[in-house]
């Protein structure tokens, strides 16, 4: 009766030695089918991560290289020729994708292009260290060795562009209102030009800081007569990415959307279509008249 009163059941009381043995059996491998504790599993996972790390780094570098080659690339602004739109030391991201699909620069776009022929002769080129060379190769840092320039596209193939002293820049006879020009500068008083017809496949470029930009106006005696071949264009600068305080997009100014600016270019296809449509009509009329004379 005394035993039943302590346990609350009709079963014999457990002996103290049973509790002493139970912890031993719990750590005897019954909870781990491999007979090992959790520490070995953690070591295995850590080793697996270190084995995969080089592969992850390689994939990341490959993606960075592909992005730089086909999508976007960072460029550093080396001079003041595009003030105040761009400041020396700014980092811009350049769209390199659309040129792969045949898109050509449009009026008003800020573009980066390779030196078309002697524009940067005499300009010092900094010598980067090996780390900078590697980072610029994969696109994580602007290249310091490539001789590239950045200007605004003013006229494209087929356009007529001119600027007289004291007057505005005109494209196809339309005066451009250029609010992006550096304060205090004139459109072209330092180097008037034109009228000039832009050849197909080339563009006419000018810096926003007109009195501090050796742009197309200053290379009219070169092999390209100041024009930049489209195949030298790397891409359009779309955004100022660095420093963060200067983050901004680079849209096309409204002055390049004014009606009639593209009239001179759009008339050529329309004229060609008119001629193409008139030829069958003339031939049909000639056959009809000839046939009528023969029958008579």
Q: Which keywords apply here?
A:
4-stranded antiparallel beta sheet; alpha+beta; 296 residues; elongated; disordered C terminus; 8-stranded antiparallel beta sheet; 12 strands
Report what the structure shows.
By secondary structure, this protein is of the alpha+beta class. The protein is 32% helix and 19% strand. It has five helices and twelve strands. It has helices spanning 2-7, 16-30, 39-71, 130-137, 263-295; strands at 72-76, 91-95, 110-114, 148-156, 160-163, 169-171, 174-175, 193-197, 202-206, 228-229, 233-242, 248-249. The strands form two sheets. Strands 1, 2, 3, 4, 9, 10, 11 and 12 form an eight-stranded antiparallel β-sheet that branches. Strands 7-6-5-8 form a four-stranded antiparallel β-sheet, with no helix packed on it. The longest helix is centred in the N-terminal third of the chain and has 33 residues, at 39-71. Residues 1-16, 18-33 and 264-296 have low confidence and may be disordered.
